[in-house]
Amino acid sequence: MFKVLYVGSSSACFELQNNLIYYSEREYFVTVDGKSDGKARRENVFSLFNLKPATKYRVGTAPDGFSLEIETPAESACLDARSFGAVGDGATNDWRAIQTAIDCCPKNGRVLISGGVFYTSPIVLKSHMTLEIAGGAKLLASENAADYPVLPGEVECAGSGGALQCATWEGEPRACYRSFISAFHAEDICVTGEGAVDGNGGGGGWYADCKGQSIARPRLMFINGCKNFTVHGLAAGNSASWHYHPFFSKNVNFYDIRVTADRASPNTDGCNPESCDGVKIIGAAFSTGDDCIAVKSGKAYMGAKYRTPCKNITVRNCLMRFGHGGVTLGSEMSGGIKNLDVSRCFFSQTDRGLRIKTRRGRGKYGIIDNVKFESVRMENVLTPLVVNMFYCCDADGLTEYVQSRGKRPADDGAPYLGRFRFKDMDCTDCEYAAGFFCGLPERPVKEISIENARFSMKGDAGSGVPAMASFIGEHSKAGLLFTNVETVKLKNVTFSGVSGGEVVTDNVDNLITENVTKCDGLITDNVKTS
Fold first, then answer.
1. Is 324 one of the annotated active-site residues of the chain?
2. CA-based R_g, the chain, Å
3. Can you give the pLDDT at residue 352?
4. DSSP-assigned beta bridge partners for residue 401
5. From the candidates 94, 269, 277, 290, which is the catalytic residue?
6. Which domains does the chain have, with CATH numbers?
7. pLDDT number for residue 188
8. Model confidence at 529, in pLDDT bands (50, 70, 90)?
9. Is 64 an active-site residue?
């Protein structure tokens, strides 16, 4: 069986209903009105393209024989960018033609990019439209900084005394080059298609001295203050910085997308929702130079001013490869992060699986709570689970205030980490540690629960620091390490190949265990039950 995730005027997306992780049990074929395209599929999420508007289709899967009916919505017009003068030869700058087509597109219309490589300066979308990049077509970003307007970080609103956030970089208002594709305070937008969007990040010197640039690098797609925004099917890559960045937006969906960046490229995160409400990332495949997914809500200024958490986030049936973190929370989390549900995801060769990074100074509104990981597989992940309240990679991240391990007053700069639940996890070929959890002594992590989990260490595991913090030293084949946590619950947890204690605690108030074992039997020497 399968269900509908999205239906647009020319494309649709579906998800198999099983309990499997990213891949189905066997190959299957998709039929449309009884006819198969002959393409064998394995992923749990699949898509259809080249559909006609205002048309009913019977979609099925073989060999199981299940089918359902969809109806594509009508559209007011379909405007081919070539009709406005776009060339698509990969050399001519097609910005004027593409932007004019967008500007002329009527409500509920579609702009079509097809049949070529369309080299272009940044474009801006508007409400009630679809941008389709058809199979075989590519949008290629200009590598020339002069083609990118500079957006101010925060501007005062004339007469009202208020302020508007136009651009942001790593959680603070900052002047940025306009992103390759942008939408500002718009609604009801879809970017879809089997085609590609190439940020050309390596072509324009964006990666050189990336931390010292006075104007921040553009993202591939910046979604600022929007609602009902969907990205479906695209292959994106090589962004100058983050690929997808929804910012203070609602109901943003990413279905069946692929994001690829060189492993050495700096800050090329896959998808970073920031202070958003309702984000779905389903059927995505990431291979990035930084975090695959990073959920954020600004640094101290933004958190205190807007107090807008990033909340109600669903990540399902996704593949994460090579990133520093598979799913990361923070470090810009001063507005809070609530209700994150990660399920049926596969992590391969990421540095960490779950990665929570925060520190003193993120502030009292930096509350992370109700985080769930369920039905997750990790292979060759250096440290599958990391919760780190001593993150050191900001300009002031190495100060005594941030890195002191002594108990300080729980002042207004201290964030709060609540409940974290991990269930049905299989983690093989871990290297540094099975998990590293370190709260603040003055504000411990509330609760860590791990149930039905297996951690096996790589035979020739290397050594390294499990989290980016001072004073923790290198580890190899360590178990679950808990420091400054109120309650730890472990049930049906198995270890293999761990050196040293499988469960090591320091300043843990309540350790509750049931059936915690290693390969040669029940652990009794370093786990207590309370």
1. yes
2. 24
3. 97
4. none
5. 290
6. 2-71 (2.60.40.10), 76-290 (2.160.20.10), 323-530 (no CATH)
7. 98
8. very low
9. no
